[in-house]
Amino acid sequence: MAVDPVQDILRLIRGHNLIPSGSTVLVAVSGGPDSTALLHILASLRSVLNCSLVCAHVDHGLRPDEAEQEAAIIQRLARSVGVPFFIYRVDVLSHGRQHGLSLEHAARELRYACLRGCAREQGAALISVGHTADDQAEEVLHRLLRGSGRKGISGMALRNGDVIRPLLQTPKKRLLDYLARHALSFSLDSSNEDTRFLRNRIRHQLLPLLERDFDPGIRRALCKSAENLQEDEDYLEEQLDKVWPDLVVYDTNSTPAEHRLNRNVLASLHPCLKRRGVERLLNVVGVGARHAHILAVLDGAARGRTGGELHLSQGLRVTIARDELVFSYPRGKAAYRG
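Request: output the structure for the sequence above.
Response:
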């Protein structure tokens, strides 16, 4: 007999305080089985959690033959559980071409822009998404294949800023059983079968191969590794938080504004905190933390001569002074040659 996942999900939400009492939560629903189950389960827990829900769906404009039916299914479910429903339509192909983004990247960027816009309008401090334990296993493998470090292969967090993942420890099989018991309709996204995408090859080829020929419990093992690494990540972030005020100073009096990285403080840190500190700073200044850039900054801090410069992406310049590295955009935040 299938075990109902609701109580396990409730324990997870309470144990990690994912939904504080009195919260309004925006539930992102694609129409697939995971997010459909998420909306229904959270609706059943509203009174227990003392929270309010709104539901949002983003049509990416990629599957016009399926989009209308998906939206109709979600709208019916939202109405049946008494949750306000909002739909947004975006043009992923145009956005990707305009900004030089992959299809997946462009879709994600537009989707979260819509979700956050809806959350602001509806007074929702949290956005709940339907990532499952199966998604976590796929994500760990995906990041491992791309050469991610410890932070990357720790997978997705239960909470990341305003995004929460109440289903992250629930296998998809339990959610499918739940949907069947409650006779809930859902849609299947045809693009999830397209093996041109690495993530789909991991889902349909690599993970089944690993389960069949290496370890039938590989999904649980990957999720457990991610959970352990996430705990390590939390600790390392706490250690970096302690030294951050001495490591980086944001100088708004200079023109343009500058971030100043203290070379002596950086030199005193453990290597893993050095990398982590530079990675955080690059993300703070808005260029993204590429591995090559992290190494270049670390080398500049350790051996760079006063007056030297590093020219990174989007016009970011790192000037080497005796006691610090100065991060600024002297010609604005745009690619610069010359």
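The mean pLDDT is 93.
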